[in-house]
Amino acid sequence: MIQTQEFSQFIIAHQLQRRIRIIVPSLFRNKERATILQILLLKRAAIEEVRCVWQINSITIHFDPEQFPKQNLLKLLEAVLVNFAQKPHASLSKISEQQQHREGPKQDIVFGIGGMSCASCALFLEMVL
């Protein structure tokens, strides 16, 4: 008998040893969010390929179970998709309402996070906020 684990952010539609297909309701017809999720998942070396069909909320992930066991992948997906389901502007507005910033000259700050490109770094920060 196959045991299926329940997740709050996605449904497992199909799974094999090296591939899993999930349905993510928070992606409903949202091409931008599907692309962001694809970029974030491909940052993991053990994830070989990610295909998103945003029209039907479907994501297929090809991975190496030796490097990244399926249970770890499922936990990662659940953790990422909890934040992912929230709209970025809602998260940012909460932070700006809670914190008062001192007035001063505007500054440009350049930084990098773990070898990520500017686009993926920005996406990572947006997802965390």
Detailed description of the structure:
This protein is α+β, with helices and mostly antiparallel strands. It has a single domain (11-90, 109-128), classed as Alpha-Beta Plaits (2-Layer Sandwich), CATH 3.30.70. It is built from four helices and four strands. It has helices at residues 31-42, 70-84, 88-98, 118-128, and strands at residues 11-15, 19-23, 47-53, 58-63. It has a four-stranded antiparallel β-sheet with strand order 1-2-4-3. A hairpin with a 4-residue loop joins β3 (47-53) and β4. The chain is globular. The chain starts with 10 loop residues before the first strand and ends with a helix. The mean pLDDT is 79.
Précis, in short:
The protein has 129 residues and is α+β, with helices and mostly antiparallel strands. Helix content is 38%, strand content 18%.
